[in-house]
């Protein structure tokens, strides 16, 4: 029996809601828009039209995969972050609303400089650095990422958001001391891997079975990347440069101590929208 786009949307949303899917409304809408090649506005415009059988079948297949744990962003190959459309693949973490708190602080830090040089270290999709470049027109941003497939996604997102003139991507390992050829930055921002190794198997299946382990595993206590960046990348910051981290639950105090021990002052902890300490940032005051 022929059904409309809206009928399929309501049925898919009902299935997701009954299964306890997070944000079933968005998930249903995104899958239908992706399968039909429509924008959100076009979906609303055409909601009373009958949906072709082949698109209905594709939506139902995508819905089954999502109910089995596959994230919507990987199913449709894109996601939005801080108002920016981004290509997404299994090589990168899916940008999350919590990380927008880090992006907002990085934008503020960059706005304090005349022509800031900004490094997004462990860039993944490039979401944080691209948000800075989009909202700070004088900024020149480097996306630093180790994984080759993630580097490709960064390049795609630079082009997609028309930021090729001010954003570049380089392969780099956050655990290694940077080359002096990189120069110095006014702001280094990083959302590094921070899940303790033993905790990865306890994560929700949508994360554990689908998101890249390389972007999750922060070592035995989850702090390996924070130690390395504080120790080895401080020389890539100009005097009074800013270092900003996203941190996992329960890690903020430990990261604060690491930053202070590495010569950072004015270290502060910022909570996310759920009142969870999510960002730790500080200023490089002294050489040690």
Index terms:
elongated, alpha/beta, seven-stranded mixed β-sheet, 2 domains, Rossmann fold, 288 residues, 19% strand, two-stranded antiparallel ribbon
Can you offer a commentary on this structure?
- The protein folds into two domains: 5-68; 90-284, Vaccinia Virus protein VP39 (Rossmann fold, 3-Layer(aba) Sandwich), CATH 3.40.50.150.
- It has helices spanning 5-18, 24-36, 40-45, 53-67, 72-76, 99-111, 127-135, 148-160, 205-208, 224-232, 252-261, and strands at residues 78-81, 84-87, 117-121, 140-145, 167-171, 185-190, 237-246, 264-271, 277-284.
- The protein has eleven helices and nine strands.
- It is α/β, with parallel strands linked by helices and 288 residues long.
- It is elongated and about 70 Å long.
- 39% of the residues lie in helices and 19% in strands.
- Helix 1 (5-18) packs across helix 2 and helix 6 packs across helix 7.
- Strand 3, helix 7 and strand 4 form a beta-alpha-beta unit.
């Amino acid at each position: 029996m022929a059904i409309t786009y809206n009928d399929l949307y309501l049925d898919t949303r009902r299935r997701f809601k009954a299964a306890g899917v997070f944000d079933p409304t968005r998930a249903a809408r995104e899958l239908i828009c992706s399968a039909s090649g429509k924008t959100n506005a076009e979906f609303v415009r055409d909601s009373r039209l009958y949906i072709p059988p082949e698109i209905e079948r594709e939506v139902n297949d995508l819905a089954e995969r999502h109910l089995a744990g596959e994230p919507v962003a990987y199913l449709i190959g894109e996601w939005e972050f801080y108002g920016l459309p981004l290509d997404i693949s299994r090589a990168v973490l899916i940008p999350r609303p919590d990380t927008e708190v880090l992006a907002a602080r990085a934008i503020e830090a960059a706005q304090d400089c005349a022509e800031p040089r900004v490094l997004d270290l462990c860039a993944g999709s490039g979401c944080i650095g691209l948000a800075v470049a989009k909202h700070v027109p004088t900024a020149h941003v480097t996306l630093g990422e180790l994984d080759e497939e993630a580097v490709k996604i960064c390049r795609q997102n630079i082009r997609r958001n028309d930021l090729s003139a001010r954003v570049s991507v380089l392969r780099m390992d956050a655990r290694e001391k940077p080359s002096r050829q990189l120069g110095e930055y006014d702001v280094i921002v990083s959302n590094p891997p921070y899940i303790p190794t033993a905790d990865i198997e306890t994560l929700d299946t949508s994360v554990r079975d689908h998101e890249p382990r390389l972007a999750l595993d922060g070592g035995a206590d989850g702090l390996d990347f924070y130690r390395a960046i504080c120790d080895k990348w401080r020389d890539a910051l100009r005097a009074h440069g800013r270092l900003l981290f996203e941190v996992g639950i329960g890690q903020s105090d430990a990261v604060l101590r690491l930053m202070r021990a590495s010569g950072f002052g004015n270290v502060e902890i910022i909570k996310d929208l759920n009142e969870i300490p999510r960002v730790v940032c500080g200023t490089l005051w002294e050489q040690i």
